[in-house]
Amino acid sequence: MTAPAANMKINADRLWDSIHEMAEIGPGIAGGSNRQALTDEDGEGRALFQRWCEEAGGTVKVDAMGTMFAEFPGEDPDALPVYVGSHLDTQPTGGRYDGVLGVLSGLEVIRTMRDLGLRTRRPIVVTNWTNEEGTRFAPAMLASGVFAGVLDQDWAYAREDAKGARFGDELARIGWKGDEPVGQRKMHAFFELHIEQGPILEAEGKDVGVVTHGQGLRWIQCTVTGKGQHTGSTPMYMRRNAGRGLARVTELVHDIAIARQPAAVGAIGHIDVYPNSRNIIPEKVVFTVDFRSHILDTLEDMVAEFHATAPGLCADIGLNFKAEQVGAFDPPAFDETLLKRVRAAADRLGHSHMDIVSGAGHDACWINRLYPTVMIMTPCVDGLSHNEAEDISKDWAEAGSNVLLHAVLETAEIVA
């Protein structure tokens, strides 16, 4: 395969303008984005993306989960395509770059090829995966999970938002429920460019992150049950306070992850307290433990220690404890050949880079189960993401997109 010349570069101004034009659809209240999956704003953003792809010479197709595939032909129509993309949906108080950078940098690869008169042997397909965020319809990475065969399509259609609206109904309502069967496509490779969503690249002064692994994840939903009593009239020694159980388990989760540094993280995120009244001792607390590691044995050890220890911590103070796993995926290791290609592209372009592990889940993690996959990351200011103040520099976007351009062109086999 021929490596692209070092002077082949994207149009950074065009990419930057496209990102901020997309952000005008579903604007947040503090400068970010609120373009949640299958809202009217999501539909409008999809229409803009389709128009841009068609103007660049692509043909947009949509599968039954609403995922968009913008196809650009290669010289060999029988060759397996190279796919590149991410997602356009956002958190309710999301930033302008999470997911969007990956989709529009893929489009910018195509636009740059047209500018430079470049052709590839393999077709290139720019992809917008539906409902990556999972903020309106849980779980996250829903469409790519169905594509990869790890989630059932009918089950996905039945997911409901907080108001009881069903995923399948909302997909049809906004007009983006396609006829193409999910998962029938074959890929030569998949690339995803994404902001880091963490502070490491900026702190290390690196232009580009080469993502070697994603973190595996285990979500454990726990219920601690005590007795709801008056906070003023119940003696301390007679209390069965479910809140104390939460406190003990919170410290346990922290200690389990700390003992396995630097290869592990753990925290309790979502918490519901019942009856959640100022003057009633909590009778029940339901919460979710989130363990992550890029090493499978470490992940499984954390879970095993948790299940062995947490029930006793609660029983010691008169509480009942139960737990069930409600989410899981094993840590993906990305393709070694593609990783070498990304590093070589960064070197050729003069960008500093380092290997990094993705702390968040991404569509690439599911696609990696089926086809050779790699992720590229750009720094983000203070590691902030899932926040309207999320920010990256134009230079970071340009560096990551140029590395993407070179790696995709080499993988798709540039012919002119």
Q: What's the mean pLDDT score?
A: 96
Q: Stretches where pLDDT falls below 50 for ≥5 residues?
A: none
Q: Counting H and I runs of at least 4 residues, what is the number of helices?
A: 12
Biggest sheet strand order reads 1-2-4-3-5-12-6-11
Observed structural traits:
34% helix, 20% strand, four-stranded antiparallel β-sheet, 416 residues, alpha/beta, 12 strands, eight-stranded mixed β-sheet
Task: Explain the layout of strands and helices.
Blueprint: H1 12-22, H2 40-55, E1 59-62, E2 68-72, E3 82-86, H3 100-116, E4 124-128, H4 142-147, H5 153-157, H6 167-173, E5 189-195, H7 200-204, E6 208-214, E7 216-225, H8 242-258, E8 265-274, E9 284-293, H9 296-315, E10 320-329, H10 336-349, E11 353-358, H11 363-367, E12 373-378, H12 394-412
Parallel strand pairs: 3-4, 3-5, 5-12, 6-11
Antiparallel strand pairs: 1-2, 2-4, 6-12, 7-9, 7-10, 8-9
Helix pairs in contact: 1-3, 1-12, 3-12, 8-9, 10-12
Folded structure, characterized:
Helices cover 34% and strands 20% of the residues. β3 (82-86), α3 and β4 form a beta-alpha-beta unit. The chain has 12 helices and 12 strands. The protein has helices at 12-22, 40-55, 100-116, 142-147, 153-157, 167-173, 200-204, 242-258, 296-315, 336-349, 363-367, 394-412, and strands at 59-62, 68-72, 82-86, 124-128, 189-195, 208-214, 216-225, 265-274, 284-293, 320-329, 353-358, 373-378. It is elongated and about 80 Å long. It has an 8-stranded mixed beta sheet. It has a 4-stranded antiparallel beta sheet with strand order 8-9-7-10, with helices on one face. α1 (12-22) packs antiparallel against α3, α1 packs across α12 (394-412) and α3 packs across α12 (394-412). It is of the alpha/beta class.
